[in-house]
């Protein structure tokens, strides 16, 4: 009995055997393209002809993941510039990199003292802003 079970197990194993040698994976969507496992999501090379190995990879450790799954570089979140297509890098910021309005919105350095109220309360244009360029003081006063 045990011999039969072992035999059946081996048949099942062989029947479901991957077309790739051990340590390699099949490029999904291809017939027989095999690549080493470590080539999947190596963020360097497209090894599968259909790019499967670099598709749907999580963001790299030095990247920031947008709510919609896009990857942006670390440091681009909460900097006052929209990088994610869904703007998730600029929403719900606890701390802004350059300037934070009282309502929590992040501004970039070009929005400070540029003559336009980017904060709802206009605190980015208040006199005495240390980043103010003397050229703009006339307009502020
Ligand atoms: Ca940003
Ligand atoms: Ca401004």
From TrEMBL:
It comes from the Eukaryota. PROSITE patterns: LDLRA_1, LDLRA_2. Disulfide bonds join 59-71, 66-84, 78-93, 101-119. Pfam families: Ldl_recept_a. GO terms for cellular component: apical plasma membrane; receptor complex. One of its GO terms (molecular function) is hormone binding. One of its GO terms (biological process) is receptor-mediated endocytosis. Residues 1-19 form the signal peptide. Keywords: Disulfide bond, Membrane, Signal, Transmembrane, Transmembrane helix. SMART domains: LDLa. InterPro entries: LDLR-related, LDLR_class-A_CS, LDrepeatLR_classA_rpt. This is Uncharacterized protein. It comes from Allacma fusca.
């Amino acid at each position: 009995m045990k011999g039969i079970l072992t035999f059946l197990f081996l048949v099942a194993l062989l029947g479901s055997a991957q077309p790739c040698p051990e340590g390699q994976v099949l490029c999904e969507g291809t017939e027989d393209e095999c690549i080493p496992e470590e080539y999947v999501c190596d963020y360097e090379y497209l090894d599968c002809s259909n790019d499967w190995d670099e598709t749907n990879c999580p963001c790299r450790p030095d990247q920031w993941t947008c709510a919609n799954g896009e990857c942006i570089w670390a440091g681009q979140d909460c900097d006052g510039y929209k990088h994610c297509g869904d703007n998730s890098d600029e929403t719900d910021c606890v701390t802004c990199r350059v300037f934070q309005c009282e309502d929590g919105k992040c501004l970039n350095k070009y929005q400070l003292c540029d003559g336009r109220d980017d904060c709802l309360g206009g605190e980015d244009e208040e006199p005495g802003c240390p980043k103010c360029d003397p050229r703009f003081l006339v307009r502020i006063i």
